[in-house]
Amino acid sequence: MGIINKFFNKENENSNIKLSEINNFFKRKNLSVTNDLSEVTYFICMKVLSESLGKLSIHLKDGDGKKITDHEALKLLAIRPNCFMCPSTFKTLLEFNRNHFGNAYAYLNYKGAKLVDILPLRPENMKILIDDTRDIRINSSYIYQYFQSGKIYYFKPEEILHFKGGIGRDGLVGKSVRETLASTIGSAKESQRYLDNLYKNGLTANAIIKYVGDFNKDKKEKLVKEIAEFASNDSHERIIPIPLGMDLVPLDLKLTDSQFYELKKYNSLQIAAAFGAKPNHLNDYEKSSYANSEMQNLTYYVDTLLYILTHYEEEFNYKLLTDEERSKGYHFEFNIATILRGDLKTQAESLNRLTSGSIYTINEARNYLGMPKIENGDVIMVNGSYVDLHNIGKAYENRSKGGKKNDKSSE
């Protein structure tokens, strides 16, 4: 790896770059995966985005839009990226890492010139080293540094598929939503923790014990502990015994008075909006219904998935195709038809129009519905009354000429 030797001054004797001059960019914060995923809105958004990408098939097409099926990179992406994962699991994992950690990485394992594996890497073990001592007008070189089992590995940029999440400030790495919305997600977790504690206490609010006299610290703690045990124990049928001369005054704080539900719902919608998830993904059908699911899927595709899929396609095109293949128009493309399908009536009307409009063949329409091909079904059909644009009106000219001949014959 010549670039590594250049960075560490092993081959280039004229290089003045030292190890201390290589910046270590963007160290991963020590964030807890479990705590963030325990928040239901965050988990749902991660699940929706990850599974949305995982269920889409990917195709390789040429400049004319015809599918290419014998490409080694396509076989890995469509059949088996590596010996551990199927394609849907692989894509789901990449999208999860991209959203949760802000970056997703996959190593392109070559044996000679043949690509044999695409292996996902743990984002928390990856760092980017960049040489910023060169002229600012020249693109700075960078490499990937990866830690695994006590060993350090270095990769060239062309050996790593790198998918960035969120909105980064430099274009080198992405930034996860949980880092951007740390306070908002923290508030959602606190509200969930408050409800959990409320259920543990038997939905009993806090209370004040009124008494005359003075207790030392140990007696106070013992008294509070005993009363709390009675209050949270269902076997006592909500009966709380208190000593003579004391009075238990509950602090009646109602969730409705503090608008707890409204604030929690608003917080959830804000988190979902940051991910690009729609309210119906959170089972919020207050302003929508099952009937307009097709339009919701279209909105979700245009507003959220389109950018994500474009990012994946561009990375695949650059890292998995050669210059010669790209010059021929080869490009990867996700099949989004699976998420844009409507109800049966809408599908039937759309396929009928596409077939009668000479866009789909009969077999293409049947393939869309998962039905087998039929004989002579690959022929484009067109209405027999259609004429070319430059022949429009000739039918009327012939008709008028025929009318004149009839008039002469009658004479």
Automatic annotation (TrEMBL):
Pfam families on file: Phage_portal
NCBIfam families recorded: portal_HK97
This protein's name: Phage portal protein
Organism from which the protein derives: Peptostreptococcus canis
